[in-house]
Amino acid sequence: MHELVGALRSYAWGSRTALAQLCGRPVPSAHPEAELWFGAHPADPAHVRVDGTKRSLLELVSADPDRELGSAAPEFGGKLPFLLKILAAEEPLSLQAHPSLAQAKAGYERENRARVPLDSPMRNYRDENHKPELVVALDRFEALAGFRDPVHTVELFRALDVVLLESYADLLASSPDSAGLRTLFTTWITLPQAALSSLLPAVLDGCVRYLSGKGTRKFTPEARTALELAEAYPGDAGVLAALLLNRVTLEPGQGLFLAAGNLHAYLRGLGVEIMANSDNVLRGGLTPKHVDVPELLRVLDFEPLDVPIVLPEPAGDGSVRYRTPAPEFALRRFDLIAGSGQVPLTAAGPGIVLCTAGSVRLLQDGAPLVIERGGAAWISAADSDIRAQAVDGDAQLFCAVVGGTG
């Protein structure tokens, strides 16, 4: 059991306040802070404190995978199979999807044969892994996730009352299924600039008119989001594509799971995110970065999706679990009450324990390790009988472990 120091990542869409406040640092931060990585990803591994020194978690696991990962070592090639993050979005992330495991392996090999450098901005596949992911909201969290039922999308188009949208509404109404969604999305994402320059402003004008109308407005979040995205990414076809997706609001404690092929974009909010240990992203817009339309279309799942919200379920040990089909990870949350006794972390290792509220004392054989809000600890498979207790007030703890052990 060791203290784990996360790797701070700065991206333009990050927050200057959220992560700094969570970790007790001065606000505002010097740069937008987007993610705090707790894992063994080669791009930016976290570090453990061992005997007064810092050591990469990647090095620690690689040096003795059997001790650190236990029975999970052979299954995942001696590597920690998940990456845990705290994500802080002040502005929208890119519209994106992740490949399946087979697609990732094939794409990685294809780009290797083509000798595309791993650090090239034109590279789609930086590893051979897929990237199912779960985000759990720490405050209100806004997102776009998966293609909406086409029947409701046609209703949205009609409500906006835009002449240039009529043919697209008719197209989708005549084929309200994955085939219709594929046709419409492909049409929009490949629109010539002249056509996009006519359609997009007309749609945005329709959103403004819709929001200025009287009475209850069913599609207010969708219209507002389109206007916000257009302001951040003027002239981007991804603004149109966003109209096809489910608009999701997570309240604190609710989760959102995204499997391979689900087009999505996180809009704003603070959350705990866990995913398979991969950096494979196919972008579809809302970004100045590389967009490979043919490869994106190969990866996307156009089946209409019910909003994939994951609600916490009692786990029987004082925690709640977030169920997903991902074999790489499982996530639990412990809400620790001030003055209560020690709580056993029944499935702590191999895994990462992350404190998101208050401070927590971890104990193993009587030896304590205190982690403050925004801090974490690495628990190896060799560690046993780990217990947790709130320190000076209520606390919240997330426990991320290899899937099947949580």
Strand content: 25-35%
The helical percent reads: 25-40%
CATH architecture of the largest domain: Sandwich
Are there runs of 5+ residues with pLDDT below 50, and where? none
CATH superfamily of the largest domain: Jelly Rolls
Average of pLDDT: 94
- Describe the largest sheet: 11 strands, antiparallel
**CATH fold-level topology of the largest domain:** Jelly Rolls
User: What's the end-to-end separation, in Å?
Assistant: 18 Å
Question: Structural class from helices and strands?
Answer: alpha+beta
What is this structure, in a nutshell?
With 406 residues, the protein is of the alpha+beta class. It is built from twelve helices and 22 strands. Strands 1, 4, 5, 15, 16, 17, 18, 19, 20, 21 and 22 form an eleven-stranded antiparallel beta sheet that branches.
Describe this structure in words.
With 406 residues, this protein is an alpha+beta fold. It folds into 3 domains: 9-144 and 250-297, Jelly Rolls (Sandwich), CATH 2.60.120; 152-243, no CATH class; 320-401, Jelly Rolls (Sandwich), CATH 2.60.120.10. It is built from 12 helices and 22 strands. Strands 1, 4, 5, 15, 16, 17, 18, 19, 20, 21 and 22 form an 11-stranded antiparallel β-sheet that branches. Strand 16 (319-322) and strand 17 (330-336) form a beta hairpin. Helix 6 (150-160) runs antiparallel to helix 7 and helix 9 crosses helix 10.
